[in-house]
UniProtKB/TrEMBL annotation:
Spans through the membrane: 20-50, 70-93, 154-174, 180-197, 264-285
Location in the cell: Cell membrane
Matching SMART domains: AAA
UniProt entry tagged with the keyword Chloroplast: no
Record-annotated ABC transporter domain positions: 356-592
Protein name per UniProt: ABC transporter ATP-binding protein/permease
Main localization, broad class: membrane
Key word Iron-sulfur present: no
GO molecular function, one term: ATP binding
CC terms in the record's Gene Ontology section: plasma membrane
Organism name: Fredinandcohnia quinoae
Residues covered by the ABC transmembrane type-1 domain: 59-299
Keyword terms, alphabetized: ATP-binding, Membrane, Nucleotide-binding, Transmembrane, Transmembrane helix
């Protein structure tokens, strides 16, 4: 129940008085319903079908007295008029309350979606290296959907609770003994339904886990569909999929069995209870006919509500895991928060003046890991110069660049920007001054123009073409059927690897950054295009700080400084030519290997 109470508190904080108004509406509807029942007695008296003595019934005796003072013809019309009036008012309030309920739910879910999305985006990069993307997608779609229906169920549950309480008070006024008797049965039944609620929670939890595996699997498989098809892995995947679908099917059927079992037991117990109730009313308590009839009317309306409370509790049990999951992710995001809402208002244009410095940096991905990925990193990246980072695969190049961009935080040591330690205070301003081109360039399924403007919405047509010329992409863009308005597919699938790299490079330049970071950004280019990019980078030198990771050492021939990493440590540094001349060093080895490969 804890997550529900938490969310209901949040619901109140967010909706405030609307929620109170909603509850008042619920109470009014239930009261009017009760008044309608009270009116039945004078009505039945008037029909003369039953000879009813109403002196002993509180409120009703007063009502009947009142009507008896008015001429019969008028009082009948008055009762019927009041009855119709009450029904109209009740119907009107009910409609308003249903709309209000819907608005509360929609607003709350909108708020939850936006809040979770923002929390995710404002979290440190580290969080995304531990969470699966498919889990995030699932949380933002299915689980939030379940939280929405859980909120609706909870509101329904409260409505039933208020309705039942008011009807119980009415029943209590009519016959205290009988009401206590029935309530004891009701409480016993709710006590036993605890077992069902617990089991529903278990099936809900299982269903969440299974559907998480399902979405993660589907995402992975269709991301890797080319591998699956080219390596004829279809059958293996179909078997995996079938086994998972079996588990999903079994879990759903078990849950259905549980639901129908509890409903079945509830029905039997209700039938026995009603029979015992009528029997005892007549033989033991000897209630009067009028009271007995009225109580039967009330309980015949009350039991379905009782039953819906019980069914709602079970359904709530099955959505609790979704609430828990949302809470868990939200609290993980809070812990990993690196940006606050107000930070966006304080972004000051930042131009790197002196340079970036790494001081005694140690870094590892998991706190409990013994092995450091980066060790004792001390280096200077002077502004407006080109610094290249090289080393074998897994040496820690990308990790170092992530630290330089403030995506990762060092375990000890510091990154200093123009002499000032990189802290949250100016992290956003600093990042706004960076353009980053990753190993695996990301493009949205939109037009080329939209992809380019994403980073610099105010760029003119001339700016766009200038950036495309720079990255040697202008020629192929001109030849596309719709030019800049060509839609490029999921992650830019309709472009070749080299074309994608050139577009992402153009996008990075469009922003006119103070710092340009290229992580293997030219790996998919042919020699001719690589030469053009090398030439363009040469022209950029002196206008911005360039940090470049390149396996292909020919790309960094013009670098002012080369940093060589091995197993997380800097083992060499200096100018390209200087390092190339250092015999038996890692750099000259790497260079030698590449020359050999080219010669072969
Ligand atoms: N998210 C992560 N979680 C745990 N370990 C990681 C993570 N990312 C990288 N590593 C590890 O850190 C080490 C350095 O990885 P990094 O990607 O920085 O190397 P790299 O030099 O850029 O390699 P490559 O040239 O192949 O891209 C590797 O041993 C890698 O397994």
């Amino acid at each position: 129940m804890k997550p529900f109470v938490y969310f209901m508190r949040r619901l109140y904080t967010y909706t405030g008085n609307i929620l109170l108004l909603n509850f008042i509406g619920m109470v009014l509807i239930s009261l009017l319903d009760g008044v309608g029942i009270f009116l039945l007695i004078p009505l039945i008296s008037f029909t003369g079908i039953l000879d009813m003595s109403t002196q002993d019934i509180p409120i009703i005796s007063w009502m009947v007295d009142l009507f008896q003072r008015i001429p019969t013809s008028m009082s009948l019309s008055l009762i019927l008029g009041i009855y119709v009036g009450i029904t109209i008012v009740q119907g009107y309030i009910q409609r308003k309350q249903v709309i209000l309920n819907g608005e509360i739910q929609q607003k709350f879910v909108h708020h939850l979606r936006e809040e979770t999305y923002k929390l995710l985006l404002q979290s440190r990069w580290e969080l995304f290296t531990t969470m699966r993307k498919s889990d995030i997608i699932k949380l933002m779609t299915t689980e939030i959907g379940r939280v929405k229906s859980g909120t609706s169920m909870f509101l329904q549950f409260l409505t039933s609770l208020i309705f039942s309480s008011i009807q119980l008070v009415i029943a209590f006024l009519l016959s205290a003994k009988m009401t206590v008797f029935v309530m004891i049965f009701g409480i016993i039944l709710l006590f036993f339904s605890r077992k069902f609620i617990k089991k529903s929670y278990h099936y809900g939890n299982e269903s969440m886990k299974l559907s998480r595996i399902y979405s993660a699997g589907i995402t992975d498989h269709f991301n890797g569909i080319k591998d699956i098809k080219s390596n004829t892995l279809e059958q293996t995947h179909v078997s995996w999929f079938r086994a998972l679908c079996d588990r999903i099917e079994n879990n759903s059927i078990e849950y259905l069995k549980l639901k129908t079992k509890s409903q079945f037991i509830y029905k039997i117990v209700s039938a026995i209870l009603i029979s015992v109730f009528i029997f005892t009313s007549i033989t033991i308590f000897q209630e009067q006919t009028t009271q007995l009839m009225l109580i039967i009317v009330i309980f015949s309306r009350l039991w379905p509500t009782f039953s819906s409370i019980q069914a709602n509790l079970e359904k709530l049990g099955s959505v609790v895991p979704a609430f828990e999951e949302l809470l868990k992710v939200q609290s993980q995001c809070m812990q990993a928060k690196e940006i606050n809402e107000n930070d966006y208002k304080r972004i000051n244009p930042f131009i790197l003046k002196e340079g970036i410095e790494c001081k005694n940096i140690y870094f590892k991905y998991r706190r409990n890991n013994k092995k450091f990925v980066l060790k004792d990193i001390n280096m200077q990246i002077p502004s407006n110069q080109m610094t290249a980072i090289v080393g074998q695969s897994g040496a820690g190049k990308s990790t170092l660049v992530d630290l330089l961009m403030g995506l990762n935080q060092p375990e000890s040591g510091s990154v200093r920007i123009d002499g000032k330690e990189l802290t949250k205070d100016f992290l956003l301003s600093y990042r706004c001054s960076i353009s980053y081109v990753p190993q695996d360039p990301f493009l949205f399924n939109a037009s080329l123009r939209e992809n380019l403007l994403l980073i610099e919405p105010n760029a003119s047509e001339a700016d766009i073409w200038e950036a495309l010329e720079f990255s040697s992409a202008a020629e192929f863009v001109r030849e596309l059927p719709s030019g800049l308005d060509t839609i490029i597919g999921d992650r830019g699938v309709r472009l070749s690897g080299g074309e994608r790299q050139r577009i992402v490079l153009a996008r990075a330049i469009l922003r006119k950054p103070s710092i340009l970071v290229l992580d293997e950004a030219t790996s998919a280019l042919d020699t001719e295009n690589e030469r053009k990019i090398k030439h363009a980078l040469e022209k950029l030198k002196g206008t911005m700080t360039i940090i470049i990771i390149a396996h292909r050492l020919s790309t960094i021939r013009n670098a002012d400084q080369v940093i060589v990493l091995e197993k997380g440590e800097i083992i060499q540094r200096g100018g390209y030519k200087q390092l190339a001349n250092e015999e038996k060093s890692l750099f000259s080895n790497l260079l030698g290997e590449q020359v050999e490969i080219r010669a072969n």
